[in-house]
Amino acid sequence: MAATCYQPPRKTVLWAFMLGLCSLLLVNFSVWHKEQLWRNGEPIILALAPKDPRSLMQGDYMALDYVVARELRQALQHDGNWQPNLQGWLLLTLQPQGPALYRGYRFSNADTDMTGQQRLLPFKVRNNRVLIASNAWFFEEGQAAHFDAARYGEFRLANDGELLLVGLLDENLQPL
Prior knowledge:
Layout: H1 10-40, E1 42-47, H2 53-56, E2 57-58, E3 61-63, H3 67-78, E4 86-93, E5 101-106, E6 118-126, E7 129-131, E8 136-138, H4 144-147, E9 152-157, E10 163-169
């Protein structure tokens, strides 16, 4: 007596194929979108805030914090707006050379009373921390000493406010 193999119904195979194809399309679109932001986004530089050196390097990533995030936290607390679950817009002024400067915050990006060099970046408050874009930089194992010289984060800003960390810079604004 010959053993027979289970043959799933054709409909099941077709649905599995379609779901797999849709998943691949979504992933590829996301990658394409990030590449477009990397190439065409507006450059923004943010100064990194000092961290406790005992916890700065943990394995193959560097925990990041930003000077403007700390300034925002202080302003929110001073104004009585600090909440554990909050989001809004950080107002920055771009400089021709050097990091962007903190100018304030808003809870809506509909305001239009900004100068030509001011930009709004989205922020969130989660777990008692102000989060702006990425809070970590991942690198190849054994490269911690190389990235220890990081003083600035280089970002690309999309028109809709999406922010992408594209690199770290040293004290002379040179890529690491």
